[in-house]
Amino acid sequence: MTAQTHRDQIRARLAAAAPAINPSILGCDYAQLGQEIADMEQAGAKVLHLDVMDGHFVPNFTFGMTIVEAARRATELPLDVHLMMEQPGRYIRQFREAGADVITVHEEVCRDQSELADLVAQIRELDALAGIAINPPTPLERIDKVAGNCDLILCMSVMPGFGGQEFDHVALEKLAALRDRPDVTAFLEVDGGVNVETIADCTAAGANMLVVGSAISGSDNYRQRIVELERLIK
Ligand SMILES: O=C(CO)[C@H](O)[C@H](O)COP(=O)(O)O
Ligand SMILES: [Fe+2]
């Protein structure tokens, strides 16, 4: 029997948790990062979403591998790293070495689908799950050749760059179309404006990884909010 790879283990953990609330640390108090992550974990998070923004692909900066590495020391939860950056291929290895378990790159930074497929292969080579993300205006055709051969597809429901924006329903049509494609076995993730009003529509459309930022980090009781969100999807 062949030994389980890290990818196999992470895939199994995510599958067992699905549909999973995936809290984003975007709005956390970074002076208390370890405590914030411990609070998310105690509140019931089974995976954590880390938003890397480069100030080029999106009009905002957040953090790089230093914070991913700090998060890795703070928890054993799978780390889902969303790279909102140009030229992600230059940094994928460093994010993996920092402790990323899922690494997601944007279609919009790629020349074509063959470059996107190369990034997926690079991420898998490093024994991480490979995700591909598309912005609200990006049609599904732009990933149709890669969708059947990646580990996660992220349908953005806001233009990336900031938390607290309003949910764009265009993501629901894409999720439903991906769910209905027999060759797509990837986790289906949605990110942006997911809250108590929108989360049930997301799972009904096929999402099984639900990134939630401000609806959790802006609440004064993480546990209560996660329980409330879980009740709406299970
Ligand atoms: O990728 C992101 C922004 O680009 C974040 O993951 C997302 O915005 C989470 O925040 P919220 O739930 O408040 O929209
Ligand atoms: Fe994100």
TrEMBL record:
Binding site for a divalent metal cation: H49, D51, H82, D191
Cofactor: a divalent metal cation; Zn(2+); Mn(2+); Fe(2+)
Catalytic activity of the protein: D-ribulose 5-phosphate = D-xylulose 5-phosphate
Cofactor: how bound: Binds 1 divalent metal cation per subunit.
Transmembrane segments: none
Record's keyword terms, sorted: Carbohydrate metabolism, Cobalt, Isomerase, Manganese, Metal-binding, Zinc
Superkingdom of origin: Bacteria
Enzyme class: isomerase
Single Gene Ontology MF annotation: D-ribulose-phosphate 3-epimerase activity
Name listed for the protein in its UniProt record: Ribulose-phosphate 3-epimerase
Species: Aeoliella straminimaris
Gene name linked to the record: rpe
